[in-house]
Batch of 3 targets.
Target 1
Amino acid sequence: MTQNKIIDLRSDTVTKPTKAMRKAIANAEVGDDMYGEDPTVLELEEEIANLLGKEKALFLPTGSMANQIAIKAQTQPGDDIFVGQNAHNWMFESGATGFISSVQITVLPGDGRYDANAVRTHYKPDNVNFAPTTLISIENTHNVSGGVTWDRKEVQKVLEAADELDLSKHLDGARLWNASTYYNVPLDELTKGFDTVSVCLSKGLGAPVGSLLAGNEQVMKKAYRLRRILGGSMRQAGIMAAGGLYAIRNHREKIQDDHENAQLLALGLNKIDGFSVDIIKTQTNMVILDITDPNVSTQQLVAEAKKEGLLFLSLSDKRIRLVTHLDVSREDCIRALDILSKISNKALVYS
């Protein structure tokens, strides 16, 4: 490794609290959140509810818990729900949907994004032979597909189809901040028509922990009890909420820098022999790199890059993911390109 700093592009969850955020956390006014008496948590919940255009929001430890509470609150055991290909609440939440809610999942065709026709085609009515479809879930931005956003007109058509079929609608907006930045629209423009919305504070915003679930009074009353059932009720949680409050007030404008840095990486990687990036799908802070040279594997790249102080994730034998975030500068991205170019050339010479 030629430089001391580690460039960590594995995920936007690896960010560390800034000094200013740590100060806000240290000075947080707290109370017992289980009793509804933590002023910082209440302030965060109110601010998020207003940003998302919903009546209530509930502070939760994780995004997975937010998604699972949303599903449980809007389904009955034996129901069927729709998700997109490789959706987080299908692939990366340890089978919690079946374990907690006892529902069946139908994965709709597409790249994680699906259309209204798929909703109508795969819908199952309340018939003795079927698990009736009762809920759709949209993930925006979509993680596995490389941080892509949903076309706003297509989302509207999907929501209209769901309304026709009397389906509840959940938005997994863990990275909705990125979608809002990409479209340059307020968050509540992207949440209209959804019954529940989850957002994460510890990804693009750089807070150390926490997510929120938002919705109307009725569904959030259920969510509050489900949080207790699942062990998510907290005490002096304002210490954590303070980091989230600081993040939404100070870090949202920095997300544009993450998107620009991802573009820099994507364009640079596309110029390296043996690498290919779909620039059109590099919309937010994720870069999906395909290795086109048959003699180079992701395992080689991961191992060699780590020696040089560069970290990223292997998605398959020929695909890696690089994620820009608050702790990654433009200079870091330029250095990352230099490292990958050097490793690629070495791999090509000695393969």
Note: The longest helix spans residues 330-350.
Target 2
Amino acid sequence: MRRTGLTLLETMLAASILAFAATAAAIPFAAGLQQTQEALRLEQASVLAESLMDEIVAHPFDDPNAAGVYTLGPEAGETSRTLFDNIDDYHGYSESSGGAKDFAGNTITAANGLWRSVTVQYTTVSGQATGLSTVFALVTVTVTDGSRSAVVLKRLVTREY
């Protein structure tokens, strides 16, 4: 009498082949999901950079309390963003401890692990008249994701005459 059916060895071999095929089929989906998550993270970092840059350039170029004085960084008493009164007050601003914060200083929970820093430097451009070293300011907002720079946004701002 002849036996029909599968042996245990044949069943295990078929199961192994099926598992291998399923894994091979799942890898592209996992890679696609990872790329989607990275794209969303980059978009979130870009929004954070743009919002802080918009906040900075909304301030006047010159300090309203000290016209003609161009000291980078906040003046005495300007201890938070809500007290910054001109563009160069943001020089040296950093959110490295605690993550990205809104204007009022509250942590932006959706920006988990992202933080921003700002540099401002007075610069000249080609063909600029000598003696006008504080006509342009280069504002740089950097959004960092963990230990790597995710987005760097730069804007050249000029004093209005």
Note: Residues 103 and 134 are 27 Å apart (CA to CA).
Target 3
Amino acid sequence: MKKLLVLCAALLAALPAAQAAPITVVRTISFSDTFAASVTDWDHNLLLPYFDASLGTLTDALFTFDGTGASSFSIENKDRNRSQSFTATAKATISFDQPLNQILNLINTGSPTLLQKYDGRTDFGGTSGTTQVLSASGSGGFDVNSAPGLAALIGTGNFIIPVRARALSTFSGPANMASNVSSQAGADVTVVYTYDKAVPEPGGLALVGLALVGLALTGAAAATKRRSAKAAT
């Protein structure tokens, strides 16, 4: 019994030294914000949380951003004597301000479309009219790993990323065409924070477990001895 008590005492005495040397593990946490596709042109603020310094030491911040655009082209050939073709191009720019300072140029050019001579109805249908939808998308990344850049991302609450979308969609073709073009665009941003976190050394945790087991055995042995003593009397 005395030997067991001595062992437990030695283990408990060793705990502070074992726990005083934590190890560092690398962890990540991510946040996102999205602005759904809306009629252009628009300006919008995306919000992302600052890194919480209580989690550990920030070592990297990887931003990824995406943009989508779509344009609907309604075209009517108004020439009463001949067929005509047109080509539509969906184009937009999505700009992400600080801390990204990045621009996405979205573009998608459709195939030439032939429309028959005017059928007498400006309805963007029939043989002389059509409606065509073209979409475009793009993405990019931006990594922050410098000390000043990371320091600017540490704090509480949210920081703002201003985003702007401008539509530049066009179509080309001969004269005598009626047209209507409408555009939408959307954007999203994600940040992945990588940070170092100090955790207790596994050896220290193992000693805690051994000490607890030893104390449990000591208590059980003492209880058995007391029961035996009572039985003897």
Note: The CA atoms of residues 104 and 144 lie 19 Å apart.
